[in-house]
Amino acid sequence: MKLNVLWDNFFTTDSEQSENEFLREIPLFDSLKNSEIVRLERNLHIRKYKENETIFAEGEPGAALYIIKKGFVNIYKMNGDDKILLVRLLPGNFFGELALFDESPRSATAIATKESTLYALSQADLAQFSEKNPDIGFKISMRLGGILSQRLRMANTQIEAKNSDV
Amino acid sequence: MFKNLGIKSFYYGVLGLALLILFYGIHSLFLPLLIAFLFANLLRPVIHYFESRGFSQITVISGIYLIFLTFAILFFTFIMPQLIQEGAILSKELPHYLTNLKAFLSDFELTLQTKLSFVEIPDFTQLAQDFVASKATQATGYISSYVSSVLSLFTYALIVPFIAFYILKDMHLMRKELLTMVPNRHFEMFVLLFYKIGQSIQLYIRGQLIDASFVGIATGLGLALIGFPYALTIGLIAGIGNLVPYFGPILGAIPAIIIIIVSPDWGSPESILMVVAVFMAVQVVETIFVYPTAVGNSVNLHPLLILLSLLVGGEFAGILGMIIIIPLIAILKVTLELLHKYLKEYRVLT
Fold first, then answer.
1. Dist. CA B99–CA B297, nearest whole Å
2. Does A128 touch chain B (CB under 8 A)?
3. Which range, A31-40, B149-158, B164-173, B327-336, has the best average confidence (pLDDT)?
């Protein structure tokens, strides 16, 4: 038993290996090396949610980005008492990324539609992690910038299409 | 008033209460834990800086401890003998100073008697002699308490770096582990709370220490420049005293004023003026430039709160209590303010 504990300090186990591979496939981290993923993984929180449990609610300050490891998450926009479904997210998808930049209120509500396991990366953890590992922090920020600009372009195209329909 | 605070919160409340009781049970550990926590918070940015340059955490912590050890050795080799020497000179000169004090008091008494003959003047010389005699009988008590305080200082010197080492090494894991216990609904709120509280405390403690170091070094240097004896000791007292709000500058100046009164070489108005000028110059520079930059408005404590805290701190642990209570109150204030802010923003409080 003790030997295993010692052994684990030097080598990654199979489950760790598969978790690292899972994280490497997330677009946000696909530019990171294996050793960098291992370091980042130590800063992620694993959260388990029950079916229909709220992950975060619209209007509350944002503090973390979430990556779906297992399960499904729906993103809703609240309209009075009504919920308008914006998107249904699958394992490997991430959401709530704007919270990594500031504490501005969440623009939508996230609810787990099945029993789900999520990785949470908080703004605080990313800031401290980037302070210690500026190279990795820079890679993540660049990738995040790229993804956000891509989403902005898509949103612009959709708005233009809607306007031309009108 | 409260919503979303169910049975879990009750359990956490009970857990908190149990921890408090446990903490009360081991309250002798409170001070070393607090000092270690403050010390670790002070070192954290330095460790982050070197970690960002590719050094491992353990290497940086070990390196810092080695530097501290070197400084401690240098302090005990070079500064401590100087302090002891100043102390020895002071104790050698003490009878001489006492004679001067006696003469000063009888002169004062005589002047008062001639100028205010209608008022009954107390016998100052006798009062002073009684005071010195009563202090002398307490000396044995002081010596034994001094020995025990040196022993506890030695214990602290061993325990504090040890606890601080583990706080520095594993604080991140402790925080992560603590967050796993937080219900999902309050996870983000606690993430923000921990981060902001840590940040504010770090800034406050660092600022206070920079400020106190400036006052200590500047006072010591200023007094040394005008050739005042015991400059190092008084600089040290002024620096430490500066950690006590309002009374700090007075606490630092009192030993210097006593020496001026009783010392025959430093009794002239010019020399008094020079010493006062050094203290005032240091205070002016500190108030205008150093304090706003180093401490700023990171933690704004109401003057009345400071005064009451100082009374409580002084009541419990004397000067040390007065020094420790302010960062403690600052930590408490920041925690409560942020807790209130986020409880409202996350709609736990309506």
1. 48
2. yes
3. A31-40
> Does B297 touch chain A if contact means CB atoms closer than 8 Å?
no
Q: What is the CATH number of domain A2-165?
A: 2.60.120.10
Per-residue model confidence as pLDDT tens digits over A117-146: 999 999 888 988 888 888 899 999 999 999
Structural domain boundaries of chain A?
2-165
What does the block give as tokens for B292?
């706003």
A109 touches chain B (CB under 8 A): no
Average pLDDT over residues B174-184: 89
Please check whether residue A44 touches B, CB under 8 A. Answer: no
- Which of A9, A39, A45, A126 is most worth mutating to test chain B (most B CB atoms within 10 A of its CB)? A45
Nearest by Cα to B65 from B163, B155, B210, B211: B163
Taking only the tens place, the pLDDT of each residue in A52-95 is: 999 999 988 888 999 999 999 999 998 888 889 999 999 999 99
For B207, the 3-state DSSP assignment is helix
* A47 at B interface, C-beta within 8 A: yes
Pull the structure tokens for residue A159. 């708005």
pLDDT in tens, B53-86: 878 888 888 888 898 888 888 888 887 787 777 7
Contact: A122, B191; criterion CB under 8 Å = yes
For chain A, what is the total number of helices (H) and then of strands (E)?
5, 8
Judge whether B191 and B263 are in contact, CB under 8 Å.
no
Residues of A in contact with B172 (CB under 8 A): 42-43, 128
- Would the pLDDT of B6 be above 60? no
Amino acid at B240: I
The answer to whether the CB atoms of A131 and B347 lie below 8 A apart is: no
Closest partner CB to B347 (pick from A60, A132, A134) = A60
**At a CB cut-off of 8 Å and minimum separation 6, what does A95 contact?**
A65, A66, A68, A73, A75, A89, A110
Sign of CA dihedral B272, B277, B283, B286: negative
> How many Cβ contacts (< 8 angstroms) between chains A and B?
62
DSSP designation for B202: H
pLDDT at position B158, please? 78
Residues with Cβ < 8 Å from A105, sequence gap 6 or more?
A: A58, A59, A60, A61, A62
